[in-house]
Automatic annotation (TrEMBL), chains A, B, C, D:
<dbReference type="InterPro" id="IPR006268">
    <property type="entry name" value="DAHP_syn_2"/>
</dbReference>
<dbReference type="InterPro" id="IPR013785">
    <property type="entry name" value="Aldolase_TIM"/>
</dbReference>
<keyword id="KW-0808">Transferase</keyword>
<protein>
    <submittedName>
        <fullName>3-deoxy-7-phosphoheptulonate synthase</fullName>
        <ecNumber>2.5.1.54</ecNumber>
    </submittedName>
</protein>
<feature type="domain" description="DAHP synthetase I/KDSA">
    <location>
        <begin position="87"/>
        <end position="322"/>
    </location>
</feature>
<dbReference type="GO" id="GO:0016832">
    <property type="term" value="F:aldehyde-lyase activity"/>
</dbReference>
<dbReference type="GO" id="GO:0009073">
    <property type="term" value="P:aromatic amino acid family biosynthetic process"/>
</dbReference>
<dbReference type="InterPro" id="IPR041071">
    <property type="entry name" value="DAHP_snth_FXD"/>
</dbReference>
<dbReference type="Pfam" id="PF18152">
    <property type="entry name" value="DAHP_snth_FXD"/>
</dbReference>
<dbReference type="Pfam" id="PF00793">
    <property type="entry name" value="DAHP_synth_1"/>
</dbReference>
<feature type="domain" description="DAHP synthase ferredoxin-like">
    <location>
        <begin position="1"/>
        <end position="67"/>
    </location>
</feature>
<dbReference type="GO" id="GO:0003849">
    <property type="term" value="F:3-deoxy-7-phosphoheptulonate synthase activity"/>
</dbReference>
<dbReference type="InterPro" id="IPR052899">
    <property type="entry name" value="Class-I_DAHP_synthase"/>
</dbReference>
<dbReference type="InterPro" id="IPR006218">
    <property type="entry name" value="DAHP1/KDSA"/>
</dbReference>
Amino acid sequence: MIIIMKPGVTRGNVDHIVEMIESKGLTAHLSQGSQVTIIGVVGDKTKLAHSNIEIAPGVDRIVPVTESYKLTNKKFHPEDSTITVGNVSIGPGTLTIMAGPCAVESADQVMETAMAVKKAGASMLRGGAYKPRTSPYSFQGLEETGLQYMKDAGEAADLRTICEVTSIHALEIAVKYVDMIQIGARNMQNFELLKEVGKTGIPVMLKRGLSATVDEWLNAAEYIVAEGNANVVLCERGIRTFEKATRNTLDLSAVPVLKAKTHLPVIVDPSHATGVRAYVAPLSKAAIAAGADGLMIEVHPCPECALSDGPQSLTFEDFEQLCDNLDPYAKLAGRMFR
Amino acid sequence: MIIIMKPGVTRGNVDHIVEMIESKGLTAHLSQGSQVTIIGVVGDKTKLAHSNIEIAPGVDRIVPVTESYKLTNKKFHPEDSTITVGNVSIGPGTLTIMAGPCAVESADQVMETAMAVKKAGASMLRGGAYKPRTSPYSFQGLEETGLQYMKDAGEAADLRTICEVTSIHALEIAVKYVDMIQIGARNMQNFELLKEVGKTGIPVMLKRGLSATVDEWLNAAEYIVAEGNANVVLCERGIRTFEKATRNTLDLSAVPVLKAKTHLPVIVDPSHATGVRAYVAPLSKAAIAAGADGLMIEVHPCPECALSDGPQSLTFEDFEQLCDNLDPYAKLAGRMFR
Amino acid sequence: MIIIMKPGVTRGNVDHIVEMIESKGLTAHLSQGSQVTIIGVVGDKTKLAHSNIEIAPGVDRIVPVTESYKLTNKKFHPEDSTITVGNVSIGPGTLTIMAGPCAVESADQVMETAMAVKKAGASMLRGGAYKPRTSPYSFQGLEETGLQYMKDAGEAADLRTICEVTSIHALEIAVKYVDMIQIGARNMQNFELLKEVGKTGIPVMLKRGLSATVDEWLNAAEYIVAEGNANVVLCERGIRTFEKATRNTLDLSAVPVLKAKTHLPVIVDPSHATGVRAYVAPLSKAAIAAGADGLMIEVHPCPECALSDGPQSLTFEDFEQLCDNLDPYAKLAGRMFR
Amino acid sequence: MIIIMKPGVTRGNVDHIVEMIESKGLTAHLSQGSQVTIIGVVGDKTKLAHSNIEIAPGVDRIVPVTESYKLTNKKFHPEDSTITVGNVSIGPGTLTIMAGPCAVESADQVMETAMAVKKAGASMLRGGAYKPRTSPYSFQGLEETGLQYMKDAGEAADLRTICEVTSIHALEIAVKYVDMIQIGARNMQNFELLKEVGKTGIPVMLKRGLSATVDEWLNAAEYIVAEGNANVVLCERGIRTFEKATRNTLDLSAVPVLKAKTHLPVIVDPSHATGVRAYVAPLSKAAIAAGADGLMIEVHPCPECALSDGPQSLTFEDFEQLCDNLDPYAKLAGRMFR
């Protein structure tokens, strides 16, 4: 931690800070410039957590030196992690495709989709049974019945399953049915939910919040890992910006940024990011080229009839063609696929 | 709802849409331009909710005509609402000041603060017992013990109390201790929590999400009201933008925008919005001038020692002076205060 | 300047940096932490400007300690500046209202508006003769003819005049007609134009760029002042965010932020910020309450007929009523007005 | 154009609008819903340009149906354009790499870089002679001398050259030296400069403004094409968002969006977008996979010594390796390269 003092600070102000630091058993290093005095703090800075040095007299600002996330930080765990979900490995050397409808609507819809996406190359089935919708008057999901459909379809098609949960109650039910839990963008900082999912130990995919920085995202992942659950995968799904040509702005630079900052695998969801079916294919290729460990893609037997997010869903034919086109990109990236 | 067709659309494409509309018992109005065909839909558009017309062949885009929020919409409830919390009225003609520490730290801290803010002019006591913190290693709150301290201090100082809840579990406990519930920015779209707070009937203050549009915010409020709880107050607390000179960017234009779109009262929180103590006073005055029904201000007996958000907290002296300075602004706005 | 080294850096990496620093005649202060080494640089850091230390081996990042703007920086000029435009003073103790049409359309339109806004309380006449329009097919302004109309109207109504220029060519013409030059948001970082306006010495109002941070804005002002023209006024006019309920998001917190960082006066333009006539009055009051030195307001004899930005323009009656309502706010802020 | 009326509008209000429309020789189509009345306007809407219908009594809002850019619009020019710069073709079937230093610093630096990037696979040489810098105290460029160095190096290495201009004056000089003109992000809406570059007929690369929407960007391109210069290439270089892990946020979804909306070629600049050397390679691959027609990459003989943007520059070795790695991505995209 570095403390930058205001110009014209008094000797007394500086001494006061130095005393605060040393009283906690830490060491203060003074750099006296022509205009500005800087104090470097050496030692375990958590001891200063509640000192609010930044409002002590004469202090201009504080610059943190180390990140607050530790368990998810690549600096302390340089090797990339592989997360296993049943027989599926997410991480270096593999390309994991999670595909399925935005919302589970019926047993047939899920079963039919599971068979189609398995055949095309997906290794996991996605589907929403608890839907966080902007308006209370939109379709909210089939809940436990939907989870049963997912389980049946996953078993029939030999696909691992992933479902979003939006509350602790839903989590308690979902762990009985699905292989992996998704925390959606709106709940990325629902810390109570993160702690609970951390206690279950089940593999979890944590989507980036609409306006979450990479640092906040990794701190949210830290909540899960700190409870003892290291099976965390991150999912970039677009951030909120001024641009409205796409629903959100897919931040593909987050992929190499995450690869530099954390050892956790990274999945990209181009369907939710863009909200437009025609943009899913080019951005899927781009995501693999940027280094993603997998993709989450919306597929629906009849996008025109979907109860949720139809406009961004691929048909079975679209999805099969997409997988064929992704094949050489996976090979270039040195990733096993299909 | 208006459907804008692509240039060069075929007669068959248009007929297909018209049939879809009429098959639901609605009426289609055609406007045939030189370049573009437009179809207006007349009737109850919820019947078309799952038709996904935007991906039917030949469709360029859909333009919604009416807002999806109804109960919170000023168009259907033109009179401004007043929400009562015990003997406190929030709404037209009053200026409600909610003040207190970011986090409840001890019985003494809360009691002392309650007495000081009451004396200066606050009518409600704020304090966090469940703290949503970016890092899992930061202070997370005293929970039920903190709620008891709030209750004791509120009763002693004759102040109504407000506390944030971050889970359904916390909500169930908090309703036993406090007069008003706060839903924080990170939980604005925690729809399960919104529904539960809607069922309780307790007055609730809904903070704006960091990247929530006014429309999404009013839809979130609609979740609460749709469960039968009309006692909702909105709180503008800054949005996330590229600017980092303040912690968030306080969007004071949201105050007149909300006054035009909804009948619910609006509170402004300049402490969290800016994160800087020196900016609280000018923006408090500005909020009243812009039409706010009240303010939420952080006050701490010793900001230098605060366990959370010390740098943005006012001392008792600061707060007393602020209230004195706000007095003429309240009068100008025609609002009762102190 | 502070240099933060990566964890596990070698002794050689650190020595290399220290040599670079000392070879320029500067001093390096080392703080050796348990995890991280920090190097403080003491002396004139411009000597290191092109050293690109941040990509030297072992460097994690660089933290600048002092701002790059000097002449506009309050740290070095603690007293607030007053800028004079003829008999008008912009700065502490006064409230300057600049009013007039978005675009100059005819001699009559400008003359009529000048008389009306003078009567209501404005001291300066605004009007656009060079209009930067998003589409090349929109009305682009009357250019020199428009400037002549402004000059005539300003003289007749005893108002000082301000006009935007969008090129060096326009600047050369405008200085012959108007009392103050406006640099618009789109040209805030048109550095060639800033340098030229700096050479003229004419009073200039620099609007904030749509996505400019306060630091970038003050650096842009520094371009003008560095050329010898200290007569600079800043104008907050809304920034671009995700929110679309207003055209831009008026950042009123920028007012106290600027008051803390610079000695230059600050004007607020609620007309362009919101794009909606009904929001101009509440945000004008709020701007004064937040500490603004003046307002820029669009007024048009017939907003329904305006060639540009009619929807945000006030009628003469609206404007007169607004000025009446602003009176007590000016008094509260200790500012002379009318 | 569609006009949406407020609920409870009077018959008179509607008649007034219909008369306005018909008085201009246009046709009005009425859709009378249960809650809302909608008026569709058929005919040449430019006749209504200055009518400001949105503030007529009873009007809620206006929805434009067609884009304001015409010459750059794919709807009217469905075939993708190829722009030729000497013997270089930018467009379908080719991958154009523009490489070179951020700033031209010396004859040797440019010559050496030109030889290296040519050998590795670039077909164009980039280099800045006029540098728009945030601070007036940063290096501003060698100007005409720098252009001469570019010309010499381009001829010696058989590379076409591209240079940014920041004013009409610089443009007049630059056209004598370089093969293609760059308009930088800060000048994307410097409309006077756009018009002038439109008159020259020289090939021009228009970078996206920091906070420009795709629509504003295409309108800016329209300014150039409307003056008779159809040789326009667009360059995505990152937009400004809340995320600070990269200098800007590279919006790769803009590539497929542009491919859907315009016939102009699209280049991606990952160097300026990220500001970090290590992220250039993964995002270059991703850009090609997303459909880009080329890349602009910063290369410097000694990034540690660069006068501008060293941290994001590749060394010659880095660049050669990058080109080797891009080869299979170009082939997959069906693009000729090297």
